[in-house]
Amino acid sequence: MTLLLFLPSGPRPYRWIALADGAVTGEGEGVPAIDVDVPVIAITPADAVTLHWAELPDRSTAQAIAAARLVVAEASATPLGELHVAVGDERAANRPIGVVAAGSMREWLASLAAAGVDPVAMIPAPMLLPRPDDGYIRARPAGEGVVRGPAMGFADEARLTELVTGGVEPTDLDRNALTAALIANAATPSLDLRQGMFARRRRMALDWALIRRLAMLAAAILLVTLTIDLVRIAQYRFGADAVAARADALGATGLRRGETVADVDRQLAERLSDIRGPGAGFTATAAAVYAVVRTVPGVELTGIDFSPNGSLRLSVTAARESLPTDFKRALEAAGFDVTASVFSAANGRVSGEMTVTRS
């Protein structure tokens, strides 16, 4: 079943025609009680919509509407911003263009919503009639007189119709032909005004079967991803164990011959400490201290003693009282902990001792 709901115009109220099984099953005035599953098509008054026909591109609706707006701009004195332009298709070279005030569309949709109706389409009343090959046809669906020509559609008014048709008398459609036209347009509207910003919002219905399939697919993808990660982790673990084994074998070559291998890292550290001395080792510590000595002119080392704990005791002489302090600060800036004794002056020079260790 499909319900054609004719919008009110002037003194005319809502009127409706019910279609089912290829026939008109009911007519009346007002807005009937409508089942939510019954599609409703709103029929706009003929005198509220201006119809044009023009050759338009059929590659996309957006391109067709853009071209139609150019056609309308040349034929209308009303600013395009206040008009709603819709494009239809009658399987002919020229395509129908519906032009209506955007404010009228808003008012119609608001009144329909207040009546609990969200129409699936909005068709101008003249577009309910079939397109004649030539001449004009006339009918009165739901009591509203409309006239159609090959490239024309308008409200049927005695004097206006005669002027528009040039005196050619329209042919009246019989009831069977009108019913067939109504059924055809209800199935496939040749011009639907619900386009662009007035297009019907589709309600999303949850397909639980699809949701379950997607959930199972997501779980399978997650399982496969987890399996791949576990295999990759195992590969990394085996590879790391192999690298560690090779490192232990290589490190063992640096130990004393015949020494039992227990902890290669610790044993190598002990061996290195034995070779270079405790702490940072004598060579590294002495080299760093001499590098600092070169940066403080007037300071000389008269003795060096490397202790078993890794500290280096320095005997220092300087040309001035301030130089030992400068030398101590330079050593600390180089990363040493410095302990200085009391410096004494003799024979024009200052001397004393400093003990340095790596921080």
UniProtKB/TrEMBL annotation:
Keyword Secreted found: no
Residue ranges of every copy of the GspL periplasmic domain listed in the record: 208-358
InterPro entries registered for this protein in UniProt: ATPase_NBD, GspL_cyto_dom, GspL_pp_dom, T2SS_protein-GspL
GO annotation, cellular component aspect: Gram-negative-bacterium-type cell wall; plasma membrane; type II protein secretion system complex
Domain GspL cytoplasmic actin-ATPase-like residue range list: 43-136
Family: Belongs to the GSP L family.
Protein name stated in the entry: General secretion pathway protein GspL
